[in-house]
Design brief:
Among the domains are: 173 residues, P-loop containing nucleotide triphosphate hydrolases (Rossmann fold); 166 residues, Rossmann fold, CATH 3.40.50.10140; 65 residues, Helicase, Ruva Protein, domain 3; 65 residues, Arc Repressor Mutant, subunit A (Orthogonal Bundle), CATH 1.10.10; 93 residues, no CATH class. By secondary structure, the protein is an alpha/beta fold. The protein is 30% helix and 14% strand. The chain has 25 helices and 31 strands. The longest helix is centred in the N-terminal third of the chain and has 19 residues. The two termini are 57 Å apart.
Length: 880
């Protein structure tokens, strides 16, 4: 865990602009000295010595006149002032007795005019009116000076003018702040305030996208509220910019004005473990830097009472586990109102979302940069400008695409390519995925190294085989066949930012995907690697049989592979193989690039959880294949004619896809696949009838029969309570009748009968209570729609495009928002009692000569249109 950084203030006293600490680090500006201290010798051993000590305690570099040799020139003094940020002038009773002190004042005044030098006047035991060079005691002392240049009227005039100018500035007086300790504190506070205001911004110019993120977190912090204590968590994957954002917030919020209630910035550098962090944090908060505070000391009622009066702003960076947060907050994570004053704010950065959830924190997900922000950040490191030169734009976009919005990766790559030749760029980018930058890899790997053994294996499985477009539910069910407590473990990987969860889909960031394969390549030589994706490595494994017993998964992108000849025993001995995936990125591709011996495969591993083989080059699966462990089977664009004989005990099978297996004669018997959720037979042109076992698949959520050109009927008894998403019977030109049992599909949300030869819908469609989309596009034989369709309260989208035989459109449900009814050539009547929620209307009137135009006008009058009467005479399309 990295260091905390903090500031605090008591709620009952004035607020320090910067917290004190012997271990603090003040950010210096371009000057050599922070303070030039001007004073008369009469206060050297008393008040001034205490001021010097207080400045020193704050690590403020102070120049005093003893550092100048006797008789140094005004030019030398002016040089010192130019190298100093602020002058503190301590005016005392006998100050004007010293011509040297008066020279210093005159030179300081000159510096104010010439280069904006800052001055803090302090009136110690002397009234400001006495310091005025024209009247009062100082005027009298000036007149007494004589001899040499000190008697010159012009010199005395300069002294007087300088005193007048400085006295006019607001200063600190001992008459108003009577205690020396309080006056000294005020001096130090004012010095720090000036230094901070003068300091150049430490906000790096290449913090791309930081402003909007700071603003969003500030909304969560809501520092203007003082009736609560808040923890705000910055959560995200490694390298995403959590610490950078925390630093920007700290600089922003600790530079607020005093009334905002926080001290100004300091960043601690303690790295002595958790106990050291705790000591540093509370030593600074309690201003007890000289005390060796232990955890036990913090339990005393005295120190707890002092903490309770503190309004704090603390940032705890890189918290890994809850115990760290509990230790740093003295065990009171859920009861901070007993630890600090109301209005306190605590920022925690972490890769572990669970820490923040347990602490009841408001969570801000630090997301990846947008492509535009990424290109800008990369360009600032690689070209020192905000956009790449035209000649390097393509290569820059390639590099940015590799980084996937991760600021760490963008910075590392940008720095690596800075001032490199075009040839170097091309060579570097060509080999980047094979030889990633170690600096990126090491940061990303920290989260992985913190996982337990099974969690590491699960992460590698997901990163290597399920990195894109898998639902969280799908992923959990797949992992449950290999690991206990799959649900909680997938949740933990999401919480630790190793997986991205967004709108039901779980993905793996490209850099983490790459890291996973690097970890695998490092675990052993090729012969003992658990997972393979490199085409040449896969070829060696399957043809030379090298490393078969160690292999748990193969993921081969066929678009990147050369043609490979597989023997009948290619998978013999792969007893641990759980995932086998030969896939085309474009699912419409049909080339297999795998040639089998004429006898086909002798066997497939019985431990397979996923068998995905696009273009599987055989007419059948091995006769001895026992798919008891199989969760997903996907064989697309294959000459497969049949899978197996008889009934298989598919106790774990959930997803089954034989899309575009044009030679498939028999749909395999899946009657024992009682957990099957998805059945896809798209493009299986030879299927005439769907087997009756479908009636008993109670968990089925998707049935896709699209482009089954010869499909004629569905099973007469459809009764799935779970077929909730989609029933697709698309481009099934021989399909003439929807069974009346369709009404039993109580959970169905989408019914697509595109291009079917049906003449009517059964009245039972009114029982589809959850139906949201009904797509009858190009049902050219469809003559009527049952009036009972108006009872489908959830129906929002109705597609009737190309229903050339449709004669009437009944009253629609109230919630219809989208109606597409173009090219309905036989349409005569339209019922339109209520189109109040219709958002989009497409009526192609070309050739619709039978449609009553007066009826159309009455219908359109009920639509939320303006100037309808002017538009209907000429419109062929109407968009609302």
């Amino acid at each position: 865990m990295s260091s905390p950084f903090s500031s605090s203030s008591t709620t009952s006293s004035s607020i320090d602009p910067m917290a004190a600490s012997s271990g603090s680090c003040v950010y210096y500006g371009p000057w050599e000295y922070d303070v030039f201290l001007c004073f008369r010798g009469e206060t050297r051993g008393s008040f001034t010595s205490h001021v010097m000590a207080a400045l020193s305690d704050k690590k403020i570099r102070t120049f005093i006149d003893t550092m100048l040799g006797k008789g140094e020139s005004i030019a030398e003094l002016l040089s010192v002032l130019k190298r100093s940020a602020v002058s503190v002038i301590i005016f005392s009773e006998r100050f004007a007795d010293s011509p040297w002190c008066l020279d210093e004042v005159a030179t300081i005044s000159r510096s104010m005019k010439e280069f904006g030098h800052r001055v803090i006047p302090v009136f110690y035991n002397v009234d400001p009116s006495e310091v005025d060079g024209d009247t009062g005691s100082y005027a009298a002392m000036i007149e007494k000076h004589s001899g040499g240049r000190y008697g010159d009227p012009k010199v005395k005039l300069k002294w007087r003018d300088a005193l007048k100018e400085i006295v006019d500035k607001a200063g600190l007086t001992s008459h108003e702040i009577r205690l020396d300790s309080q006056l000294i504190k005020a001096i130090v506070d004012n010095v720090l305030k000036e230094l901070i205001n003068m300091s150049p911004s430490l906000e790096p110019k290449n913090l791309v996208g930081i402003d909007s993120r700071v603003w969003e977190v500030e909304r969560l912090l809501d520092v203007n509220r003082s009736d609560d204590i808040r923890i705000v968590g910055l959560w995200g994957m490694p390298g995403i910019g959590k610490t950078t954002l925390a630093r920007a917030l700290y600089r922003r919020l600790t530079n607020l004005s005093k009334e905002d209630g926080y001290n100004n910035a300091k960043w601690k550098g303690q790295r002595d473990g958790l106990e050291g962090l705790q000591k540093e944090l509370y030593s600074n908060l309690l201003s007890e830097q000289d005390q060796n505070i232990t955890s036990r000391d913090l339990e005393t009622s005295y120190r707890r009472a002092r903490l309770f009066r503190l309004k704090v702003f603390i940032v705890l960076d890189d918290v890994e586990v809850l115990s760290q947060l509990e230790s740093l907050l003295l065990g009171d994570v859920l009861n901070l109102t007993k630890l600090f004053a109301l209005g306190s704010r605590i920022i925690v950065t972490t890769r572990n979302r669970k820490v923040l959830e347990v602490a009841m924190a408001r969570i801000y997900h630090v997301e990846q940069l947008s492509p535009q922000e990424s290109l800008r950040l990369f360009s600032m490191y690689s070209f020192r400008q905000e956009t790449p030169p035209t000649s390097r734009r393509y290569q820059s976009v390639t590099a940015v695409g590799y980084c996937q919005g991760n600021p760490l990766a963008l910075r590392v790559l940008g720095c690596t390519l800075f001032r490199k030749s075009e040839s170097y760029w091309q060579s570097f980018l060509d080999g980047l995925r094979k030889n990633p930058k170690r600096e990126i890899h090491d940061v990303l790997r920290r989260s992985y190294d913190e996982l337990g053994g099974d969690e590491k294996r699960m992460f590698l499985d997901i990163a290597c085989f399920f990195r894109r477009n898998y639902s969280k539910s799908h992923l959990i069910k797949m992992m449950a066949c290999s690991y206990y407590s799959a649900y909680s473990r997938v949740e933990d990987l999401i919480d630790k930012a190793l997986l991205i969860y967004d709108e039901l889909i779980v993905e793996v960031h490209d850099l983490l995907h790459e890291m996973a394969w690097n970890i695998i390549s490092e675990e052993s030589d090729l012969g003992n690697r658990s997972r393979l994706e490199n085409a040449e490595d896969v070829r060696k494994l399957l043809t030379a049989r090298k490393g078969a017993r160690a292999t748990e998964g193969i993921n081969l992108d066929l678009s990147k592979a050369e043609e490979m000849h597989l023997g009948s025993d290619a998978f013999l001995g792969m007893d641990r193989l759980r995932f086998l995936k030969f896939s085309w990125p474009d699912s419409s591709s049909s080339s297999s690039k795998n040639n089998l011996s004429k006898s086909g495969l002798d066997s497939l591993p019985h431990e397979l959880r996923m068998l995905w083989w696009d273009g599987f080059p055989s007419s059948s699966l091995p006769s001895n294949f026992s798919p008891n462990s199989l969760v997903e089977l996907c064989i697309r664009h294959s000459p497969l004619a049949q899978c197996w004989d008889g009934v298989q005990d598919f106790v774990n099978l959930r997803w089954f896809d034989l899309s575009y297996c044009a030679n498939l004669i028999i749909v395999p018997d899946l009657s024992k696949a009682t957990h099957l959720e998805s059945l896809k037979l798209t493009g299986c042109k030879t299927i005439v009838e769907l087997p009756s076992f479908v009636e008993y698949l109670d968990k089925l959520t998707l049935l896709d029969l699209g482009a089954c050109e010869n499909l004629e009927i569905l099973p007469p008894k459809l009764d799935s309570k779970h077929l909730k998403h989609v029933l697709v019977v698309e481009d099934c030109r021989a399909f003439r009748r929807l069974p009346s049992s369709i009404g039993n599909l109580k959970s169905l949300e989408v019914l697509a009968l595109i291009g079917a030869a049906i003449r009517m819908l059964p009245s039972s469609v009114q029982e589809l209570d959850q139906l949201r989309t009904l797509d009858l596009t190009n049902c050219k034989m469809l003559e009527s729609i049952p009036g009972a369709i108006s009872r489908l309260d959830r129906l929002s989208q109705l597609y009737l495009l190309g229903c050339e035989s449709l004669r009437s459109l009944p009253e629609l449900p109230l919630n219809v928002k989208l109606l597409v009814a173009s090219n309905c050539k036989s349409l005569q009547t339209v019922s339109s009692n209520n189109f109040s929620k219709l958002h989009f209307l497409n009526l192609n009137l070309v050739g619709c000569l039978q449609l009553d135009r007066k009826l159309l006008r009455r219908m359109l009058a009920k639509l939320p249109l303006q100037d309808v009467s002017q538009r209907t005479q000429v419109c062929t399309y109407i968009y609302i």
